Amino acid sequence: MFALEFPPINEILRWSDLFPSFNKIAIITVAAALIGSLIFLLAGNADGSKAPKGVRNFAEAIVEFIEGQIIMPTMGRDGLGWTPFLLSIFSFIYLCNVPGIIPVLQMPATARMAIPLFLSLLVWVVFIGVGFKHQGLGYLKNSLFPPGVPGPLYILVTPIEFISTFLVRPFSLTVRLFANMLAGHILLVTFALLTKELVQGGNIALVPVGILPFFMLVFLTAFEVLVAFLQAYIFTILAAVYIGGAAHPEH
Amino acid sequence: MLTAVVTYGSNGPEVLLSASEGEEGHSSEYTYADCSIIPEGKEPSEKIESLEECDPGPSPIMPEAKELYWGASSFVLFALLMRFFLYPRLRRSMDARYDSIRGAHAEADQARSEAQAEVAAYEAALAEVKAEAAARIEEARATLEQERSTQLAEANARISSARDAAAAEAAAAHEAIRGDIGSAAASVASRTVELAIGRAPDAAAVSSAVEGSMTSGATR
Amino acid sequence: MEAFTILAQEADKAAAAASSAGFAYGLAAIGPGIGIGYLVGKSVEAMARQPEAAGMVRTTMFLGIAFTEALALIGFVVFILIGL
Fold first, then answer.
1. How far apart are alpha carbons C65 and C84 in whole angstroms?
2. CB neighbour list of residue A169: distance below 8 Å, 6 or more residues apart
3. Phi then psi for B63, rounded to 5 degrees?
4. What is the β-pairing status of strands B2-9 and B12-19?
């Protein structure tokens, strides 16, 4: 068989420190925050009274995407106050995902557990806080004892609701983002390694075959562009659904 | 590593066991420098058998404190900046533009309705002018008609009076000729009667007889 | 010549864990695969029937995909946990 040696998983995920406690992931996160701020700063500086163009057009398109595609279908008009929060979540996740396909960086910062975990815990705290703020202690009653269930069934329903609302939500938010980006990263590494082994493996007959995993690599890179956007979108829309659900109990 | 090759042939499965040790030679190309994290107390140039010998580190599921710290702090700063500075600024100018667009729309609507009112006024004036022109034309036509009819009537009267005069003249001439013929016929008849009976007839009877025969001749 | 070979690697505990992790992920991918296929198919049907509701259907479809996909991703995390 091929002399394909897949490196241990940590070899493609962990990065040594450039400065003490400052590695590639930290670079990507700091750069994501800086680039996001820069885009919106430049957009805010541009003349807003004319038809928007360039970076301003881009920023306004993102804002309108968040408002039109994420907030309006899930929270309605009342949720428009959440735009800056969801906008920063969306931009930050997207800018952390995209380095997975940028040459030289080649590492999505969200493929490490830290950022998805932090963001979903933040969303968890926020939606529970919103629930208590809007409904008081009735939030616990509404979410643990949903109305319209016959009495004895609460023995079954309440634990399920508790687990699904307060435990599974942050867990699935974290795992969804983390595992999608990690899987994409591993796929890219696999096909890159396969291409390298076939082309540089020393067997001249296998060199033309190396074009196949290379095409796959190109295709997967294009696919990762989509995944980077889609995961940021899904994380944001789920955050909006959770916050909206906590603000307005379903009757 | 122990490898078992199981072959299903025509005479049942055959198992072929083979052991292989990592001595193919390609693994010695790694050094500790190829590891992402160089283990404590190792030289980067030191050769290793495979990447398995690098610092395996914690499970990839576990969040690393330094990444958590950097990621969280940069996100929190970004979110705060977005909430209190970047987004409100963008939103303000977006709202201002939308308002101005809405204002411009309203203005355009107003201008349009004004223009429509102007057009309506113009059309009303036009209609008025047209009606006036039509009335004047009508009036002129009526005047013309009247004049024509009076002139026609005058001409007709002139023609008829001329025709009457001519007819009267003709009748007079006719009468005169008739009188002449009557008197001639009467003198011829009285001469004829005088020759026949030898005495002059009563002139009045002759002329009434001539008159009667002429009238009956004329009517016959 | 109907012989075919199965290469079974039976070595130490790590290899056994790796193969069981592979099985675990494979099993975990079946349900979500069927589920996502069904979900997207139905959504396309709904969008074709009512193109004016396409935006709402698409949003709901992505939400459904996110929930369904979570199962496969948990399988993937288990794969990482026990296999690597």
1. 27
2. A120, A124, A127, A242
3. -70, 140
4. antiparallel
Consecutive H or E run containing B124: helix B87-197
> How far is Cα A51 from Cα A40, in angstroms, rounded to an integer?
17
Angle at B67 between CA B65 and CA B72, to 5 degrees: 95
Kindly list the domain boundaries of chain B, sorted by start residue.
2-57
Helix, strand or coil for residue C72?
helix
Cα distances from A123 to residues A18, A70, A159, B68, in angstroms, run: 31, 15, 22, 16
The sign of the dihedral angle between the CA atoms of B105, B107, B110, B112 is negative
Asked if residue A250 has pLDDT above 80, the reply is no
Q: Which chains touch C (3 or more CB pairs under 8 A)?
A: A, B
Residue B11 in contact with partner chain C when CB distance is under 8 A: no
Counted domains in chain A: 1
Closest CA to A93 of A120, A73, A64: A120
Which residue in chain C has the smallest CA separation from B59? C81
Burial of B218 (0-12, 13-18, 19+ CB in 10 A): exposed
Structural domain contains residue A4: no
pLDDT band at B12 (very low <50, low <70, confident <90, very high): low
Of A70, A119, A111, nearest to A92 (Cα)?
A119
The burial of B12, by beta-carbon neighbours within 10 Å (0-12 exposed, 13-18 middle, 19 or more buried), is given as exposed
> Of A90, A93, A86, A87, nearest to A108 (Cα)?
A93
What does the alpha-carbon distance between residue A145 and residue A137 come to, in Å, rounded to a whole number? 12
For residue A26, the model assigns a pLDDT of 92
pLDDT for A77-107, tens place per residue?
A: 888 999 999 999 999 999 999 999 998 888 9
Residue C11 has pLDDT above 60, yes or no: no
Phi and psi of B6, rounded to 5°?
A: -100, 120
Residue of C nearest to B14 (CA): C5
Residue A3 lies in a domain: no
Q: Using the beta-carbon criterion (under 8 Å), do A84 and B89 form an inter-chain contact?
A: no
Distance, in angstroms, between A100 CA and closest chain C CA? 18
> Hey, are the CB atoms on A183 and C74 less than 8 Å from each other?
no
How many other C-beta atoms lie within 10 A of the C-beta of residue B149? 11
CA-derived radius of gyration, chain B = 72
Q: Give me the domain span that covers residue A16.
A: 9-247
Domains and CATH numbers, chain C: 32-83 (1.20.20.10)
Chain-centre distance for alpha carbon A246: 21
B47 DSSP β-pair partners? B31
Crossing angle of helices C13-49 and C54-83, rounded to 10°: 180
